[in-house]
Amino acid sequence: MKRELGQYFTTYNPFQNSGFLNWAYECDLSKTTILEPFAGSNNLINMLQDMGLCTDFKSFDIEPKNKFVKRRDTLKNFPKGFKVCITNPPYLAQNSAKRRNLEFPNIIYDDLYKYSLEKCLENCDYVGAIIPASFFNANIFRERLSHYILLNSKMFNDTEHPVCLALFKKSSEDVDLYNDNKYLGKLSDLKKKLPKSNINMDIRFNVPNGNLGLIAIDNTIEPSIKFVNGEEISPERIRVSSRSITRIMIPTKYKINNIIEKLNYNLNIFRKETYDLFLTPFKGLRKDNYYRRRLDYKLAKKLIEETLYGI
């Protein structure tokens, strides 16, 4: 039943973070009644109490696992009248629900956590949510997002989902970015590092005989995304739906071996300067205790165009 409801119960305290403490001070957290609409075992409230940040709370869940949690389907009947909400909403991707023959609500979002988050934001001025780290790449609710804190420690006993702590307020002009407790900077500054190519070159992905190859996902040991000669990847491995490894067709006037070194140099500089934030987090921590990452093809195309334009 827990998988059907998209429930994952938190076991690690994500709130011992300077970004969260700054947000908690702004919303006067210790003096307000905190709403936990998807409370499960009420672990988040317990953690906040241990830190002296919660003096009053109201917790609800469709399947309570704690005597202080009231039974309520908060997606259908969301609690009203709360200024602050802190929660770990249910995660359930639409494609995963379909694959497992699970019921999925008729909503505009592709994951239940996005709908749950929307409910929280509609009803509360301040929201703190432990959600999939890929939220950063979804580019939604940015007008209220004030802090994005990537949590590299394993948050749950029963899943290796990459997760973040996303903090929202009434309105926000920029986003403070953290990797655990390390401050990375403002989103507006990191966006300046994105490839700026406005050229629309004839570059096609998932072409079995493509002259350029791309290993688009890190291995389990280290950051290993790289461009290679297309001939290093068997044509049989390429599918229309391929997202982790591909062959790319770029204009033949460029000599592949001459540009691969430059492409990988630019890619590695980009990853270092942006702390991998614009690459989608992938399930499982690498041995260096950072999440594996995937380079999406839209961003890869921009990197290729910018590199070719500079040659």
In what order do the strands lie side by side in the largest sheet?
A: 3-2-1-4-5-7-6-8-9
CATH class of the largest domain: Alpha Beta
Secondary structure tally, helices = 9
Taken in chain order, the helices and strands follow as: HHEHEEEHHEHEEEEHEEEHEEH
Oligomer: single chain
Number of domains: 2
In the predicted model, the low-confidence regions spanning at least 5 consecutive residues are 1-7
What's the CATH H-level homologous superfamily of the largest domain? Vaccinia Virus protein VP39
Detail the topology: elements first, then pairings.
Elements: H1 2-5, H2 18-26, E1 33-36, H3 43-50, E2 56-61, E3 69-71, E4 84-87, H4 94-99, H5 112-123, E5 126-132, H6 135-138, E6 145-151, E7 163-168, E8 176-179, E9 182-186, H7 187-191, E10 212-215, E11 226-229, E12 245-248, H8 256-274, E13 280-285, E14 291-294, H9 297-309
Parallel strand pairs: 1-2, 1-4, 2-3, 4-5, 6-8
Antiparallel strand pairs: 5-7, 6-7, 8-9, 10-11, 10-12, 13-14
Structure report:
By secondary structure, the chain is α/β, with parallel strands linked by helices. The protein folds into two domains: 2-191, Rossmann fold (3-Layer(aba) Sandwich); 212-309, no CATH class. It is 26% helix and 22% strand. The chain contains nine helices and 14 strands. It has helices at residues 2-5, 18-26, 43-50, 94-99, 112-123, 135-138, 187-191, 256-274, 297-309, and strands at residues 33-36, 56-61, 69-71, 84-87, 126-132, 145-151, 163-168, 176-179, 182-186, 212-215, 226-229, 245-248, 280-285, 291-294. Strands 3-2-1-4-5-7-6-8-9 form a nine-stranded mixed beta sheet, sandwiched between helices. Strands 11-10-12 form a three-stranded antiparallel beta sheet. Strands 13-14 form a two-stranded antiparallel sheet. Residues 1-7 have low confidence and may be disordered.
